Fold these 2 entries.
Entry 1:
Amino acid sequence: QQQVKQSPQSLIVQKGGISIINCAYENTAFDYFPWYQQFPGKGPALLIAIRPDVSEKKEGRFTISFNKSAKQFSLHIMDSQPGDSATYFCAASGSYLARQLTFGSGTQLTVLP
Amino acid sequence: DAEITQSPRHKITETGRQVTLACHQTWNHNNMFWYRQDLGHGLRLIHYSYGVQDTNKGEVSDGYSVSRSNTEDLPLTLESAASSQTSVYFCASSPGGAGYNEQFFGPGTRLTVL
């Protein structure tokens, strides 16, 4: 079964610190790796995404690092802010399943003021 | 503005009853999805549709059904609700065609089965 394993389950970071969330996948056919952000009472929303032809993608304070040989990817949130407190989901998809996403189990991030 | 809506937002029902959750999108997206969200499991795909009259089973489809009679709507039916189906349900949509389409999620429906 296709799986995406995400860790940690919860993370507490001080304001201004770096938050790091890790994901690992098994299916080598996956070639699209998005991260979704979800605030309480809301649906998830796309935060940032990467394809394996690059090892890193940065958008503002958010960076995805991708290691194809290890089948791992991670989200780094620099200068974490209390407004970043949310649940983060990694996901993966393959070109033959381009419209389906397999999600990780989620990480609840709390940024303390 | 285009959007995706779900109704009801909260529902309490009894074991054995049939329940239908509505999902409506105004983006004219071909692809629609239903997920359930449970602590420790993330989002798991229940059913999905790539267009009118097209429906497909996802990872956790047992006990659920969908039908797609138009582009805008994909209702999710629980044929005989069970306590194990207590969850938060999310509908999502994405544009059609090949490629890595962003999925847009609705606000969710919290379902409690007593």
Note: The interface with chain B takes residues 1, 6, 9, 32, 34, 41-46, 49, 51, 89, 93, 95, 98-106 of chain A (CB under 8 Å).
Entry 2:
Amino acid sequence: QITLKESGPTLVKSTQTLTLTCTFSGFSLSTYGVGVGWVRQPPGKALEWLALLYWDEDKRYRPSLKNRLNITHDTSRNQVVLTMTNMDPVDTATYYCVSRSNILAFFDDWGQGTLVTVSS
Amino acid sequence: QSVLTQPPSVSGAPGQRVTISCTGSSSNIGNYDVHWYQQLPGTAPKLLIYSNKYRPSGVSDRFSGSKSGTSASLAITGLQAEDEADYYCQSHDNSLSGVIFGGGTKLTVL
């Protein structure tokens, strides 16, 4: 059974850096085709893909946010960490950790999400 | 504004069939698969259809997907109250070199 769980602050201030951790189980990020990433959803709005880390350590980012994002893998703890710098109130959203189990580009599994509010 | 265009809302009576469209371009749907997600109120999205037309295990056969050219569609037959949710299409965009989502469609069961 695959599980993904997000953790991190629920409130950050403008200009601060957000660090979110996704702790996963039930699969290995070393397996060919597997990926773990992040998707966010501002209140009442659509889903936005942010970043994806592939089994081969390749990393992809949303182009408009590329300069602010960094995704890393802590292999010893089965965790993927997303950092987003220079937070702004428009970054207020529910942040979901997502996984893909194969080379096909869809997200099989989603975490429950964590709401992050950015105060000015 | 999303790269993939979906109608903001659709509705139908119980038992009816509804379709949700997802329109893109040659840089995305025209050359890549489309996937669909269902987001029930207050919950995380769930994979509904992958690679244009395949259902993950456990997804009702009342849901079906199709793709033609630069557009895709999700069809729901035998509409039920529990189908009331937001539906999102997703693909890959070559120009943006990444994952893209549609703007989402809210399905209301009358």
Note: The two ends of chain A are 40 Å apart (CA to CA).
